[in-house]
Amino acid sequence: MKRQLATALPTVLFSASMLILPATPCAADPAAGAAGWLKEYPQADGSKPRSCTTCHGRDLTQPGQHANTGKVIEPLAPSVNPRRLTDSAKIEKWLRRNCRWTIGRECTADEKADFIAYIKTQ
């Protein structure tokens, strides 16, 4: 499955001068992205474990809500929000922030590619 999106990812990565390319070519895997999306990550401060669904929900065609601020998050699914995944700077910005907040570290290039591949299937 990773090979199916191997051509899509370089388009995203090469169109973004801010993105860092992995040392070795990677192929995105939507199934791995889905697994990472649903996985709950323990928090270093002892607060409730978080996952991507904490704010974005399981159905990416629906709005989410930020767990701390209560701010409504527009649907991530490109099928209902065609503006999603069109601005590489925004993709990098939000992946950096959300990975740090949810996972406690920046995501690897493979993890980012997998998340994007998963979101693109929605």
Automatic annotation (TrEMBL):
<protein>
    <submittedName>
        <fullName>Heme protein</fullName>
    </submittedName>
</protein>
<keyword id="KW-0408">Iron</keyword>
<keyword id="KW-0732">Signal</keyword>
<keyword id="KW-0479">Metal-binding</keyword>
<feature type="signal peptide">
    <location>
        <begin position="1"/>
        <end position="28"/>
    </location>
</feature>
<dbReference type="InterPro" id="IPR009056">
    <property type="entry name" value="Cyt_c-like_dom"/>
</dbReference>
<dbReference type="InterPro" id="IPR036909">
    <property type="entry name" value="Cyt_c-like_dom_sf"/>
</dbReference>
<dbReference type="InterPro" id="IPR015170">
    <property type="entry name" value="DUF1924_SHP"/>
</dbReference>
<feature type="domain" description="Cytochrome c">
    <location>
        <begin position="28"/>
        <end position="122"/>
    </location>
</feature>
<keyword id="KW-0349">Heme</keyword>
<dbReference type="Pfam" id="PF09086">
    <property type="entry name" value="DUF1924"/>
</dbReference>
